[in-house]
Write a structure and sequence with these properties.
This protein has 409 residues and is of the alpha/beta class. 40% of the residues lie in helices and 11% in strands. The protein has 15 helices and 8 strands. Bound molecules: flavin mononucleotide.
Length: 409
């Protein structure tokens, strides 16, 4: 599609009425899982869904260029299971035309929604103008939203991937992934809702102008992480800025979800109640605790009534290890044994807060497959691993200090 076509068709797209799609059917406050590259892959999300699903889940972000014409393995970040629905594909990039094509691919893959990343602060993404870099080029951000919406609408109207310039090989890869997942395009041709995840500014809080501009494009939802790009993950998330965004969105039909530093269900209840958002996305709080969302109804009850906020469910060691082992086996099934080293960080997050945890973590960083994980668990339970160091009992590796380097994002 040439640029003139995009521009004229986006004029049409911008006249389209607001369609919140599945977002409008979710219970309030919405309690969802935040996307985390290299962390919230299909295996982790599958385990989260099995433990007690969030209201909505998002994939790790994927480059629109990779999605449309990158090597096939780049599609792996968009693997998902039916049990994750509603599941939203998150994309990043800086070229409206490629977003147009990528939106059609996301629809063809059967996702329930499409989220545009306008918040990633990492040098490789933001300094090239994608992710949070788009906060500095608001008109480009606007063009991207319009082109993406047009891709969604054209898909719903019956346009083919071939007509959108997607090569036959990629079309076959998409079809075979749908068959392997056991679905086709979920629900047939439909216009899925578009959402945006962003930060409160580039180097300072510009919520009024930035969120105001995004609201003009009528996305179904905006998730706001209460930090600027320059802050990366430093300091505390500014929930008063998130509250201002929620106030701006009142009456527009766009939902505002707050994000940042929600370490416990009590944090969720407190922030939703105090800052009047439509919902939240929880990121690092769910690391090593994929059962974070299990009591989401109780969290909602605590927001709307006098009930106290629920505590994070406490699992016995055996239950915790069973979840970890299921996770390891699912990871192997999804991505193959060669990729197994990528799950080791998760294995470490499960091993905390009990006697012998440090010794167990030391072994988990060498696990090469699910059988290794099972063997290490069994050795721990029979006392064959070395005994606890004093640090074990107090619980190391708290999720919000999970060892993920801010500069890596
Ligand atoms: C390892 C890691 C990877 C992340 N990857 C993404 C991503 O792919 N897309 C995105 O929108 N945000 C990403 N984020 C940001 C989180 O979604 C979230 O906004 C941030 O961690 C603050 O929320 P939290 O305090 O609940 O973790 C990432 C964060 C971390 C720590």
């Amino acid at each position: 599609m040439v640029r003139d076509d995009i521009e004229s068709s986006t004029r049409h797209a911008s006249r389209v009425t607001h369609d919140g799609g599945f977002w409008q059917t979710l219970p309030r406050p919405i309690i969802g899982l935040s996307p985390m590259d290299g962390v919230t892959d299909a295996a982790f999300r599958g385990i989260v869904a099995a433990q007690g699903p969030p209201d909505v889940t998002m994939t790790e972000f994927t480059s629109v260029v990779d999605l449309c014409r990158g090597p096939e393995h780049r599609l792996n970040s968009l693997l998902y299971h039916e049990c994750e629905r509603p599941v939203v594909a998150q994309l990043y990039g800086k070229d409206p035309e490629t977003f147009y094509q990528a939106a059609m691919v996301v629809c063809a893959l059967g996702f329930d929604g499409l989220d545009i990343n306008m918040g990633c602060p990492s040098r490789t993404v933001a300094s090239s103008g994608s992710g949070a870099g788009l906060i500095r080029t608001p008109e480009l951000a606007r063009a991207i939203v319009r082109a993406t919406r047009q891709g969604i609408l054209d898909w719903a109207a019956g346009r083919s991937l071939a007509d959108a310039g997607i090569k036959p090989m990629r079309q076959e890869q998409i079809a075979s992934r749908n068959i392997r997942r056991g679905g086709s395009e979920h629900g047939g041709r439909r216009a899925i809702p578009l959402s945006i995840k962003t930060r409160m500014g580039y180097d300072r809080d510009v919520v009024e102008t930035w969120i105001g501009l995004l609201l003009e494009e009528a996305p179904a939802a905006i998730t706001l992480h209460g930090r600027t790009l320059e802050q990366m993950y430093r300091g505390a998330a500014d929930w008063t800025a998130i509250e201002r965004a929620a106030r701006l969105a009142q009456g527009t039909g766009t939902l505002v979800l707050g994000n940042g530093d929600l370490a416990t269900p009590a944090d969720v209840v407190h922030r939703v109640t105090a800052h009047r958002v439509d919902g939240v996305l929880v990121g690092r709080g769910a690391l090593g605790t994929p059962w974070f969302f299990k009591d989401k109804q109780a969290m909602r009850a605590a927001v709307t009534g006098p009930a106290p906020a629920p505590a994070l469910p406490v699992l016995s060691q055996e239950e915790r290890f069973a979840v970890m082992l299921d996770h390891a086996r699912l990871f192997e099934a999804c991505f193959g044994v060669d990729r197994f080293p990528h799950i080791r960080k998760h294995l470490g997050w499960y091993c905390k807060g009990f006697p012998g945890a440090a010794a167990m973590r030391g072994r988990m960083v060498q696990a090469a497959n699910g059988d290794d994980v099972a063997r290490i668990v069994s050795e721990h339970l029979t006392g064959a691993l070395s005994m606890a160091s004093p640090a074990d009992a107090v619980g190391q590796d708290l999720p919000l200090a999970c060892g993920l380097s801010p500069s890596s994002r």
